[in-house]
Each structure stands twice: as structure tokens, then as C-alpha cells.
């Protein structure tokens, strides 16, 4: 009885070494991402690398093992996502705006960043103020009414100064003019 040995068909290097192929693919995609300035998130790079690694292991010829081209622009972040600090800054800013004192944009940012106020970073405070879209004219009127209710007595010029001063409320000249007109000075 004669036995014939059949040798298994030779598989390509990529199929024999899927782990090394995957690692190589990750390195190539990472290098391309760095070269193209793809400072995107690491999960995006990992997803692209995983796709390149699985695509390379399925193809038989070594020349076809080149990774897929890296995207030229990073994927945009979803607008609905915010950090916990941004969410807290937003809530704090909203609270200040509804407490009846009347805040200017600069005054609100100062209050949010003050160690005596909320203690947020300037970036977090600015982010919150940008996303609230308050009516600054209405806030100026609230502030003007508050100054008049204090009983100190203000002339039109003095109230304008108080509303526009960096040491006062910090409103713009136009917002302050609107407020003194509304309160009747």
C-alpha cells in the first residue's frame, strides 16, 4: 500500500501571520494619521486601524495589504455632547441670569470664574455664556432697575457710568443706553 502525502496549499504570509499583519497595519495607519495631522480621537484611529487590519488579513496578495487611506478631516463631535464641567457651568450661568441681578456678558464670565463665585475656568465660563444666548439688553434693564431700587439716586450719566464701568456691571454702551431709556432716565 502506497501512501501519498499531500502538502497543504501554501498560504500567503499575511494569512500565516494575522497578528503581525494587524500590528503592522496599526503602525502604518498611525504613521499616516500623524503625517496628515489627523489629531482626531484615539477611538477613530483605532476604528480605522481595526478596519485596515481586518481588510489586510482577508486579502491574499501582499501588495494588497496596504491600509485604506486615512480620512483628511477629523469627524465632527456631536453638538449635543458636553462635558460635566460645561454642563455645570451652563447651569450656574443660567442660575445667575435668572436671579434678578442683571449680568452683562463680562460680568457673568467674571462671576463664573471668580473664586468667590463659581470657580470655573475662563474657557468653561465662556462656553456656557456662548450657549445660553441671553438677552443682554434685558439684563441691562434688570441691572438698572436694581441700581435705582437701592435708593442711592442716580442721574442718567451716573447710571450710564455704573452700567458700563468694569467695576460696575460691564455692559456695552448700547446696552446701557437701552437700559436707561427703558427705566426713564
- Computed Rg: 31 Å
Number of helices: 9
State the domain count. Answer: 3
The termini sit apart by 118 Å
Number of strands: 0
By secondary-structure content and strand pairing, the structural class works out as mainly alpha
Mean pLDDT: 73
The portion of residues forming beta strands comes to: under 5%
The helix/strand series, from N terminus to C terminus, equals HHHHHHHHH
Q: Please outline the major beta sheet.
A: none
| Estimated helix fraction | 55-70%
Q: What general outline do the C-alpha atoms trace?
A: elongated
Provide the low-confidence segments as ranges: 39-63, 68-78
What brief labels describe this structure?
185 residues, mainly alpha, Arc Repressor Mutant, subunit A, 3 domains, 9 helices, 0% strand
Detailed description of the structure:
By secondary structure, the chain is an all-alpha fold. It has 3 domains: 13-65, no CATH class; 83-134, Arc Repressor Mutant, subunit A, CATH 1.10.10; 135-185, Arc Repressor Mutant, subunit A (Orthogonal Bundle). It is built from 9 helices and no strands. The protein has helices at 13-16, 18-35, 42-58, 84-97, 105-113, 122-132, 136-149, 156-164, 173-183. Helix 4 (84-97) crosses helix 6. The longest helix is centred in the N-terminal third of the chain and has 18 residues, at 18-35. The protein is elongated, with a radius of gyration of 31 Å. Residues 39-63 and 68-78 have low confidence and may be disordered.
Amino acid at each position: 500500500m502506497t501512501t501519498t502525502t499531500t502538502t497543504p496549499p501554501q498560504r500567503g504570509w499575511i494569512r500565516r501571520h494575522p497578528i503581525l499583519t494587524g500590528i503592522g497595519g496599526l503602525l502604518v495607519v498611525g504613521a499616516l494619521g500623524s503625517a496628515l495631522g489627523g489629531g482626531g480621537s484615539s477611538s477613530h484611529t483605532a476604528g480605522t486601524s481595526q478596519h485596515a487590519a481586518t481588510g489586510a488579513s482577508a486579502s491574499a496578495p501582499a501588495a494588497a495589504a496596504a491600509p485604506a487611506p486615512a480620512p483628511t478631516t477629523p469627524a465632527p463631535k456631536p453638538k449635543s455632547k458636553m462635558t460635566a464641567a460645561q454642563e455645570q457651568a451652563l447651569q450656574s450661568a443660567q442660575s445667575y441670569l435668572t436671579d434678578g441681578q442683571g449680568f452683562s456678558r463680562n460680568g457673568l464670565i467674571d462671576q463664573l470664574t471668580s473664586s468667590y463665585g463659581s470657580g470655573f475656568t475662563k474657557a468653561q465660563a465662556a462656553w456656557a455664556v456662548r450657549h445660553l444666548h441671553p438677552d443682554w439688553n434685558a439684563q441691562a434693564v434688570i441691572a438698572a432697575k436694581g441700581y435705582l431700587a437701592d435708593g442711592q439716586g442716580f442721574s442718567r450719566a451716573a447710571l450710564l457710568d455704573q452700567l458700563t464701568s468694569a467695576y460696575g456691571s460691564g455692559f456695552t454702551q448700547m446696552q446701557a443706553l437701552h437700559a436707561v431709556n427703558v427705566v426713564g432716565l
